[in-house]
């Protein structure tokens, strides 16, 4: 049975949700330690640990005698655009590098095949890539691909053509679905992203459709201290161009 989360971890996730959804924008002041103690009924030590760890990971900035603030601007991505991480990094004047961690054909589990509308045990292509900006991990890409949409996927040299670039070329995009969540890093994930265990991360889960099929299901994980998503809407609810 799962153990209950420590109070400091619950508080970290609460703060991170407010930061990532824009309730507390960059450079805005967050509630005081006393405010958190009274609101959540926890000890000052618990609050201090949550704020200290978020500050150490770059999400917050603490100014002695003044207060705690949301950290300034980070690398960012337009929420409703489907862009190559290589292009994003290059556009900021940084150098992109990438390491292939996994590249395989698998008989996928039900939790994955259900995303494609396929039966459990259906064959899918699976890759896991670590993308870096100036040598620092920025995105862990864990992707499953439908062989019907991209039969040559595992033959691609991802050093020359990223999965995104290849799929945009062979599986023209019809529609997408995005889900963004705030989580904390496991020991293994922290090691991959070169952050501390339990540091906050942002997770974008995306499905893309092409020619009537789900072509790709990908989980993109970013250190929250180095990345953020932005988005805007026109009147009527359509994404702004």
Characterise this structure.
This protein is α+β, with helices and mostly antiparallel strands and 241 residues long. The protein folds into 2 domains: 7-70, Winged helix-like DNA-binding domain superfamily/Winged helix DNA-binding domain (Arc Repressor Mutant, subunit A, Orthogonal Bundle); 75-230, 3-Layer(aba) Sandwich (Chorismate lyase). It has 7 helices and 10 strands. Strands 4-5-6-9-8-7 form a 6-stranded antiparallel sheet. A two-stranded antiparallel ribbon has the order 1-2. It is elongated, with a radius of gyration of 20 Å. The model is unreliable at 75-80 and 231-241 (pLDDT under 50).
Topology:
Layout: H1 7-20, H2 33-40, H3 44-56, E1 60-63, E2 67-70, E3 75-78, H4 85-91, E4 96-107, H5 110-116, E5 123-133, E6 136-145, H6 163-170, E7 175-184, H7 187-193, E8 200-210, E9 213-223, E10 227-230
Helix pairs in contact: 1-3
- What is the count of distinct domains? 2
CATH architecture name of the largest domain: 3-Layer(aba) Sandwich
Form type: elongated
CATH-assigned fold name of the largest domain: Chorismate lyase
Q: Level of helix content?
A: 25-40%
- Summed up, the helix count is 7
Unreliable residue runs: 75-80, 231-241
Euclidean distance between termini CA atoms: 47 Å
Strand proportion, as a percent range, falls in 25-35%
Look at the helices and sheets and give the structural class: alpha+beta
Major sheet: size, sense and barrel closure? Answer: 6 strands, antiparallel
Write out the CATH superfamily name of the largest domain.
Answer: Chorismate lyase-like
């Amino acid at each position: 049975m799962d153990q209950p989360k420590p109070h400091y971890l619950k508080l970290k996730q609460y703060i991170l949700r407010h930061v990532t959804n824009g309730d507390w924008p960059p450079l805005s002041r967050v509630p005081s330690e006393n405010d958190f103690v009274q609101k959540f009924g926890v000890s000052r030590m618990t609050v201090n640990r949550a704020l200290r760890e978020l500050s150490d990971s770059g999400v917050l900035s603490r100014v002695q005698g003044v207060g705690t603030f949301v950290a300034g601007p980070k690398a960012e991505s337009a929420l409703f655009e489907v862009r190559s991480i290589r292009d994003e990094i290059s556009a900021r004047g940084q150098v992109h590098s990438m390491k292939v961690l996994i590249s395989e054909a698998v008989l996928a589990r039900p939790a994955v095949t259900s995303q494609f509308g396929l039966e459990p045990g259906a064959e899918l292509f699976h890759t896991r890539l670590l993308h870096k900006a100036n040598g620092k991990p920025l995105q862990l890409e864990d992707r499953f691909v439908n062989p019907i949409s991209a039969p040559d996927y595992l033959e691609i040299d991802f050093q020359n053509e990223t999965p995104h670039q290849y799929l945009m070329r062979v599986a023209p995009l019809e529609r997408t679905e995005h889900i963004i969540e705030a989580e904390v890093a496991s020991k293994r994930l922290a090691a991959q992203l070169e952050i501390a265990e339990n540091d906050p991360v942002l997770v974008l889960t995306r499905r893309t459709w092409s020619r009537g099929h789900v072509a790709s299901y990908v989980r993109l994980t970013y250190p929250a201290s180095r990345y953020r998503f932005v988005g805007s809407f026109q009147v009527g609810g359509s994404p702004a161009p």
